[in-house]
Amino acid sequence: MLLGTIVNAVAIIIGALLGIIFKKMSDQMNQTMMSGIGLVTIVIGLSMALKSNNLFLVLLSIVLGGVVGTLLQMEEHLEKWSQRLERKFGHNNQFASSFVTGVLVFCVGPMAILGGLDSGLRGQHDILFTKSLLDGVTATIFSSALGIGVLFSAIPVFLYQGLITILATWITQFIDQAMLDLVIQQMTATGGVLILAIGCNLLGITKIKVANLLPALPLVVIGAPYIQL
Fold first, then answer.
1. Helices (DSSP H) in 73-176: which residue ranges?
2. What's the whole-model pTM score?
């Protein structure tokens, strides 16, 4: 159940250790690796998005979710929260600065939520495996510049994503199997659209504020039962 989260935490640790050992990596190598991860992320997003047999519900959830997220300024609030933490811990303590930076980068984002949900609801870890590659490379870059605190950020990542997975698994006990399958199908497709957006952002194709689209996930869960009516 927690395989994806365990792999993610281990990837951060290994990446951070490599960064400490090898210090500087060339910008060209970093860009090449990030581009490869972006391409894989797009493929995973597409494969998830095409699982729905009712793309209208997915589209409606994305549009309405985007409106709600924009009105709530979710992306902006996340950025401000991150900046406040960095200002609080950033300059006086190098360990605290690198630790907080790692936690923010690895936890604050749709892939952590979507990956944890996918592991708990479907037992599928593809999102977290892809996130592990991304986080491993990022941890290497950050630790080479900021220090060993990045390595210890793997602990809150494990606790945060693990809790999401456990809660998602627990919820499945209280839902009829047929309805659960329908909800998972629609949620997977909607999550796939968000993952696709993340991949496009990684490649520099777009600058989509993915956090503003997160309300689409609860909206598609609410709307899924009405497909059968």
1. 74-89, 94-107, 110-121, 126-146, 149-152, 154-171
2. 0.74
Domain residue ranges in the chain: 2-23+51-224
Q: Which two tokens stand for residue 72?
A: 């709530």
How many Å apart are CA 78 and CA 211, to the nearest integer? Answer: 8
Task: Evaluate whether 210 touches 66 at the Cβ level (below 8 Å).
Answer: no
pLDDT in tens, the chain (229 residues): 899 999 999 999 999 999 888 776 667 776 787 788 788 889 888 988 888 888 899 999 999 999 999 999 988 887 777 677 667 655 556 677 678 778 867 886 678 888 998 899 888 899 999 999 989 988 988 788 777 888 998 999 999 999 999 999 998 888 787 887 888 888 889 988 988 988 898 888 988 888 899 899 899 989 988 876 5
Closest CA to 217 of 132, 144, 114: 114
Burial of 59 (0-12, 13-18, 19+ CB in 10 A): middle
For residues 102 and 84, give the distance between their C-alpha atoms in angstroms, rounded to a whole number: 15
From the list 28, 21, 11, 207, the residue with the least C-alpha distance to 115 is 11
Q: Taking the CA of residue 5 as centre, how many other CA atoms within 13 Å lie in the half-sphere pointing to its CB?
A: 24
Two tokens, residue 45:
């997003």
